[in-house]
Amino acid sequence: MARFWSLLFALVPILGIAMFVAAPIYGVWLPKDASTDGWAVDQLFYLILGITGVVFVGAEAAIFWFMWRYEHAANSAPARFVHGSHTLEIVWTIIPAAVLLFLAFYQMNAWADAKMRKPRISPTVEVSGRQFEWRLRYPGVDGKLGTRDDLFLVNDLHLPAGEKALVILKSMDVLHSFFLPNLRVKQDAVPGSAIPVWFEPSEPGTYDLACAELCGWGHYKMQGRVTIEPREQFERWLEQKYREQEATQEPGQLASRPKGAP
After folding, report:
1. Distance from C-alpha of 27 to C-alpha of 235, rounded to nearest angstrom
2. Shortest CA distance to 141 belongs to which of 257, 241, 240, 260?
3. Model's pTM, two decimal places?
4. What phi and psi values does residue 246 have, to the nearest 5 degrees?
5. Are 138 and 151 in contact (CB under 8 A)?
6. Is 76 helix (H, G, I), strand (E, B) or coil?
7. What's the first-to-final CA gap in the chain, in angstroms?
């Protein structure tokens, strides 16, 4: 009976590997990468998956072998206990530490590109998380955020393709997480902080905008969309939205948006 359980444990790594192989075929893998720098995130993900996968298979193989080899019905001799091995403890401490140190150095450039090397451009949009929606504010005619002619939208983020985007991320209440899976972007929105987030969309299309931090009972519905489009189409969209907003304002409160305005 014990060997039956050992065979059952052996199925765990076999089925696990089979699921990873089959997942991309059935379209249940990583979402499409629509950003210029997403490959660096994916490369790091696959490296860590490979390392942990080898450890996982090795551990499961060891469990199977010990359960099979030392099945009680086939081993009548009494057990011999070993009370520790300093050499073994040093080895299994050094190896994980070395792997973690390697990963720390390997990911430094990707981390710097995403979190430290802020582009010297004007903010593209301000995004504020609020239970349970994403509030967006684009610069108006004057090209500056925080003035009376800003454009306000909800859950409908548009960005030009092939250009660096600089998002100023805020929270109006609790902790949220600005998550663009197709752009490989995830950043917590912290109350009281204005956090710069930058990336470069590359593939035109409509993708998900979600909150990846449990932020209350309506967290599940805090969803929006991000549309990546050519610059000309982006400008036309901005002009249309600006005119729609202008139509709801008092006469003379907003100026017309000139062509090419940010």
Report:
1. 34
2. 257
3. 0.80
4. -60, -35
5. yes
6. coil
7. 72
Strand partners, 165: 199
Q: Which tokens in the block code for residue 26?
A: 């059935």
Helix count and strand count (H, E) for the chain: 5, 10
Residue bearing tokens 């249940």: 28
Instruction: Kindly state the tokens that stand for 115.
Output: 């979190």
Residue located via tokens 């009972």? 217
Name residues of the chain where pLDDT drops below 70: 1-3, 250-262
How confident is the model at residue 251, as a pLDDT? 57
Give the β-pairing of 195-199 and 156-160.
Answer: unpaired
C-alpha–C-alpha distance, residues 140 and 137, integer Å? 9
| Length of the chain, in residues | 262
Question: Which residues is 188 bridged to in the sheet?
Answer: 177
SS3 assignment, position 85: coil
